[in-house]
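ARCHIVE CARD
Drawer: 12
Card no.: 0347
Subject: one protein chain, sequence and derived structure
Cross-reference: see card 0346
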Amino acid sequence: MSALAVIGIFAALALMTFLVYKGFHPALAAIVCVLVIIVTNNMDFAETMSSAWEETGSLYGTMVPLFIFGGILSMLYVESGAITSLSNLFLKPVGLCKNQKTGLVIGLTFYMLLALVIGVGGIDCYSVVPLLVALALGFCAKLNIPNKFAVSMGIISMTFICIIPGTAQTMNIMAESFVEGFNNKEQVPLRLLVMFIYLILCIAVMTFMISRAQRKGEIFVENQGTLAQHGPKEERVMPWIIPFIPIVVVEALYIAAGMSAWVCMALGCVVGLICFGPWLMKRRGEKSWWTHLCDVLGRGTTCIPLQMLVVGVISTVLGISPGLTTISDFFGSSNISAAVACMVICVIVMGFTGTTGLIAVAPVAAAIFMPKGLSAMAIVMIALWGKSVFDTLPINSMIPIMCDMTGDEFKKAYPTVFVTTVILTFVMTILVTGMSAAGLF
């Protein structure tokens, strides 16, 4: 039964990937995936599903206000032209470049730096997904990058934002809570170096893939997704300092005042309304500014389709499946290198169970591998990077959500996501594992 349980897990995830890639709705594909896991792992259907729905609801229920207020703030940035203002500011150096490829590299670099600025504040990366995608679309429009790459830019920024060393990001805080001996403020320069190596690789790969698409004649077209600007394009460009005000307010309230993330985002929306109000001009064909504002707020609240969170049930079912326990036990008791065994467990367990997998895998990994010579920092670094490998397979509900925002087909957008956040993160996980085995962490 153990072999069938393990095979069932990989078969289910492969089926999920195939169905989503072929256009099947991710929420329905997730249910099919879960059914395969339950059957092959000989789990009680009613009991498992009841537990899974309850845990999924408790996990993602707290994120709903983040999604709503994050979506509203992002729509305010889009409709007011604040995104255009930020794009213009960060892309000024591109205009000085005579070589198109050099300009593309600089543009992608400045997008990543802007995302880094947003992430340093510690606000959970999921709450700023619409903002990251809106920024990506703004950069794509200015650099004539085909729309399908906006999703990759958003996913890459989420990948490194959630593990910025020394910040109050959720993953760092959870690691301090569940791995005894880990200090988020230690070895920050070395951890930053690893993160920047990943960013350099991503920029190099993205530059190659975008240049190839442009040579084929692919161009940026007006966004038709949920983040599309429906109002007229304002001729007056917003002063560059104004778009930073809501971001600074949100991060200051979160860091200095210690407020809850969703409260900070809600207050950020209020500040955004005050700052961007003069630029939220009346849309053509509408009777008033108020009508336009109501439409912007309404579209912001539905920017992230909450039914996509059903995909999260996969993580909860996998977390309690016998097959996953078998995998962990096998590699935990093997004679292979402690760092390599830790990597395999973290990639499989955390990659398929997401952020919550850290709660389960970190204490177990610490108990097994710290006596074998791995430090708490090494275990956390392997876990954080290992999580990213399988986390961006189609089982990640954020990818189709981002496709809805950009108006792109999943099939067109996903190949670049796979290369940059599955293959490259696996390369980085191997690098971190080697550094850990060498005693650098």
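Annotation on reverse: The mean pLDDT is 79. The CA atoms of residues 253 and 386 lie 32 Å apart.
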